[in-house]
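Quick log. Single chain, no ligands specified.
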Amino acid sequence: MKKLNALMTLFVLVGSTFVAAADEVQPFGIVPLKIDQVPTLDGKFDESFWNRATIYSGYETIQPDYGKPVSETTTVQVAYDDDNIYFAIQAFDREADKIRANVAKWDGLFEDDVVGVTIDGLNDSQSGLYFMVNGVGSQGDGLVTKDGAADNSIDIIWDAGGQLSSEGYSVELKIPFKSLRYNVGKSVKMGIQFGRQIIRFSETAIFPSVSPDRGSALSQMAIITFIDLKFKRTYEVLPALTQSDVKVLNDGTLAKEPAISGHSLGLTAKLGLTSSLTMDLTYRPDFSQVESDAGQIDANTRFPLFFPEKRPFFLEGAEDFALAASSNFSSIRSSTHTRRIGAPLLGAKVTGRLGDQNGISALLAIDEAAGIEDGSGENAAVGILRYKRLFGEENFIGAMTSSRGYRGAANHSFALDGYYRIDGNMFVQSNVVLSQFAESSGAEVQRSHNADFDYWYISRTWHITFGLHQISKNFVLQNGFVPRDGLNKFNWMAYRTWFFDNPIIQFANTGFYGFRQRDLYQNLPEHWAAIWLNAGLARSTSISTEFPRATIAYNGKVFDANQWNTNGQTQIHRMLQVKWSSSLAGSPNFDPDDAFQGDLVVTSVGLVFQPTDQLTIDVNRQNQKFRNRASGELAFDVQIIRSKLNYQINKYLSLRIISESNSGEESIATDLLASFSYFPGSVLFLGYGVNLAETTDSAVAKVFNRYQETRRGIFFKASYNYRF
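-> predicted structure:
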């Protein structure tokens, strides 16, 4: 143990303080045209200034392979004024009738043919905002980090329009400078990259081209320069009104539930402290989720289920609160999991940059959730402070403190982390977290720690990684998500990719990955060692299979966890997409009073049918069956079927019906929703929902001869984002 602790400390220090050695490549330069005329966003390019704007092209593929000629030509032009950046993108297509372009809600177009742009406003290679448009002007956006992870839960204020033609499609985008973070000055430089996706060819191309041997895509962006860009302070005020009337089953009848009924008025404000630093304030914000989380089967689960954050106040700048080397093989799934803040009364947040190299993030919140749950009426206090010192391209060292207090109980943690790119192919990242927790005022303080180190090598044909991870027993991180503590772990992964000049099979990769770890509570070993094969085919088709050999320590014993897993997806037709997965696995029954060896069968299949460019029908079925291996007795058989029908009248207005049946809970839930989303933050929603539960009570009125109504509700929400 002492040797491992010393080794982890050495890795963290090395990973955080290495000296730069990567070769530098001169970035491509984009020169935008300064204009004094606002274009109409219709995709026609009929304003005279577009005739003077430089035309850029030269896209190369990144999927299925890097650096290959593209199937179709794309051109882009850029202009700007004091308030906005404008893009004119022409996507030529010799088979224009095969273009996939649906009238979609915001962020509902990523399975379409799209074009777009990614902008790193601070030009620090840490993260970028992407903006995508399809041929009929539907929009999608999000954030991408330097490790290539994309998150479309973040919505940004911008606008776009497009049109289809016999030559392909053309779009125009308008992105306000107020929606970006940047450093003001006479010469403002931002990173920029353009992209295009063609679904039927399984092809993604970007300009300028990138190579996996030269670091992340963000570090290989073109540089766009704006002259005499003045800072205009951002002011946003977003009032939100919600009204709900919910009835729940009580003593055999539906009765109004006061705790979740009534009206609520919330207010959120945003202030641009500088062009690169933003403050958000909120009072009783509307954090209601218009669409509920998709059901997850929680039978025979050892750890809590993880649900992602969806609430806008917490999403902006969330990437800055993430520690390096957390997630992946780390025991820390999320170092800052804001869904722990269940019912905020007040919130304040500052995110952004001070100067070119100092990243600052802070979050304060007063949470009513715990007091509501236990009836005390008291509030929890949450505070998080994050600092990152940036150096070179992509690299940083950082620190974070995180605290939560409630009724005398308190958890405080302090973390150091770092990320360093050794060269174009290799990088290391690491963290150390020290935590202390007291269950009540005056109680003994419990101290614990976590440490992670990862090494990565990525090239066109090889991906290699290994890591060391240690989390002590009784580790507490109340503002994060830690499914399991008390582990020492070593992980590895290596796989090789082959590319084919073939109209059917485009690439294939195979390799192995796994880990060996020791459960410190039981002093028992666990392992996972898997080989897999993955293939990418035409029509956005992928097929993957793996064969893990594994064990799990539970209740003082080591159980068989050998598996066979497979999954895939395909765009069978322009109108039909299919996804599937299956798993056969050994597993213990996670009940300390009845821990037997079992076998688990998990299957999932999903269909997305789009008979018109406005109608989408999405159906997914999950099933889990678990048997006692010795007796063959069926322990449980749970099925969840979720269906969603969405009719998109235009890109702002939609009608939706969602239904979910859960055999484990013997329930059916149905929601009807009408929504109007003009732009992020400015919405109208009207919803109606009914929950049914199976019953054998002959004295109650039944639906479908089997179900009793257990909940009924109507919901209304209106909000408007005033930007000054």
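Helices lie at 2-17, 312-315, 369-374.
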